[in-house]
Amino acid sequence: MKNKNNEIYEKMQKDAEKLSKDSNGLKQRDTGLGVRIADTFKGATSRNEYTAFLTNYARMDGLTETVKEVRRNGIKKIQKVVNLASTQKLMFSLGAEATLDKKVRLVKANKKLLEQKLVSKAQVKAKEYLFLETKIETLTFDEKLKNLMDTFDMTNEKVIARLNAITK
To answer: How far apart are CA 128 and CA 89, in angstroms?
Structure first.
């Protein structure tokens, strides 16, 4: 009798390999892969199994360059599917017209994430894949204006002068 985890991993591997060869339809809301990723994300156990699968799948020891390239492309395209707003909405059980207030990324643990204290040293060392969930900040007009002024190093006087120049 087949181990249930092996069956899950085999299905995931087929998805990854198929996706590495064909990326048509990635923007459709209800693509099979987007739905499966959303369902996987909703369950903590299956989410952990999926990221463990990707971590193992990404290990390239002893593989030919062709197989390595197929695997790298498969993982990149899975990450693209996860990043799509339509998949994100499915992951959070939102309707197609809803606005997202948080987002999820499928990432490999790295030093930058470690510096931000989002992953552990052990995760970086293991090159572990994980889902990172972050809140989408909605800035007020005043916050956006302040950021804009800071970005372009503008004083109040310069902003008023620019506004006057473009509204004439």
So the answer is: 25
